[in-house]
Amino acid sequence: MPKIILVFLMITMSLMAFAQTQPQYSQYMMNSYLINPAVGGIEDYTDIKTGYRNQWTDFEGAPTTYYLSAHMPIGKTDRTSTGARPNFSKSIRRPMPLSNQFNTSAKVPIHHGIGFILVSDKTGANTQNSFNISYSLHVPITTKMKLAIGLSGGISQYTVDFSKVQVKDNPDQAIVAGSRLTALQPNLNAGAWLYSKQFFVGISANQFIFNSFNYKNTDNPNQRWSGDAIPHYFLTAGFRQELSEDWTLIPSTLIKRVAQAPISFDVNLKTVFRERFWFGTSYRHKDAFVGLVGANISSLINLGYSYDYTLSGLKERSRGSHEIVIGIMLNNRQRVLCPQNLW
């Protein structure tokens, strides 16, 4: 790809900072809390996850994303595990089937969830840091199914540092050496999540209000530029099919609508072996094929990795995208090895 085109793309990504979009994730199925606040508190334990994504490797100025999330239940007395766990001392054995782990005759109580997400995303000259806290309410529909609704809100800091963009001729007064723009903007997200041990359906809307804001030039406070936080809408669904005592198949999909952009979708297929190891693949429409692999190392730690093979025009320059997620299950009193609601 000619160097002039790379420079043009760098400038384009920096100018896109005025229209703020959210980071892209390939392992959202491992941490659906990233896109839907209703998921908070869905498990029996405090679910902590940290992730790093390096998108379009070797492409200068391409997005890099870090996040830390944590959520926990409050008043959840209907345990999703009997506490039975496999003995791995000699051979790997699968825990008892999910269908035998629940007392379906007992009354299922309402419970609550709280949590937070901290995200740092950098693309070219643009940096976006955000912090959100969430609340969710999980209401039983039947003895086997619940509906969760959730809200999250917080603040985002947007920074555009044009000293990192080099251009020979530029008519825009914003793009001058040393110019740095900053903005603070509140945000609000909402979602719903219908789930059981066999399926889930979720819908959410992120940064759907407080869309318009103003950048300030740190060198010249009288200069201002308008920015927009672009609304994102997600519809996701999946189900869990036990093929045998060892193998479980989990197909899922995500439909995403970003304002001012075409509707996009992902199709995912994940296979779990003996509740400990998993691997799968995803197809992101006109964008990438994704390979996924992970392990539930213990009742405390799980790990996931994904690699995106780029299908778009950037494949001539990019060496794909890498994403790693580390999960910690604190206060996991039932010693659950595999998450029971987030697959």
UniProtKB/TrEMBL annotation:
User: Where in the sequence is the signal peptide annotated?
Assistant: 1-19
Source superkingdom: Bacteria
Q: Name one Pfam family in it.
A: PorP_SprF
Q: Recite the UniProt keywords alphabetically.
A: Signal
**Would the keyword Signal turn up in this protein's UniProt record?**
yes
The protein, known as: Type IX secretion system membrane protein PorP/SprF
Tell me what organism the protein belongs to.
Answer: Arcicella aquatica
